Amino acid sequence: MLSAARAIVLVSVPWSPWPRKSRDVLAALESTQEQWFTDASVEFFDLWPERDDELKRWYESLFANSAPRFQLHGHGYGPLWWLSEGKVLECLTEPYVFSLEALQQRSAAFFHGI
């Protein structure tokens, strides 16, 4: 995930039902990626920071360094992150409230020129 030139990451937590909705969004973006971004490949990840102590420390460090610009934790709502080589380009707390087309356009814009 951190070495991918372009990645979309879902942040999942076991105590919230909302990441399931975001997982559907992530799957739709992945299955249509060749339609909305033909320049290069995009990698897709489902991140569970609470499942591993080392991963949780990394996640908390990233969050501490990114606040207040990004709400990386998403309050359990299953946020999506757009990354380029480990750098967070953008974060969207509740991606399932947007249309697939809007998320496709947003994703292509974030990755344009990378």
Structural overview:
There is one protein chain. This protein has 114 residues and is of the alpha+beta class. It is 39% helix and 18% strand. The protein contains four helices and four strands; from the N terminus they run E-H-H-E-H-E-E-H. It has a four-stranded mixed β-sheet with strand order 2-1-3-4, with helices on one face. Strand 3 (80-84) and strand 4 form a beta hairpin. It is globular, with a radius of gyration of 13 Å. It starts with 6 loop residues before the first strand and ends with a helix. The mean pLDDT is 89.
Summarize the structure.
The protein is α+β, with helices and mostly antiparallel strands. Helix content is 39%, strand content 18%.
Q: What is the helix tally?
A: 4
Order of helices and strands: EHHEHEEH
Structural class: alpha+beta
Per DSSP, what share of the residues sits in E-state strands of 2 or more residues? 15-25%
What strand order characterises the main sheet? 2-1-3-4
Largest sheet geometry: 4 strands, mixed
Uncertain spans, ≥5 residues at pLDDT below 50?
none
Shape field = globular
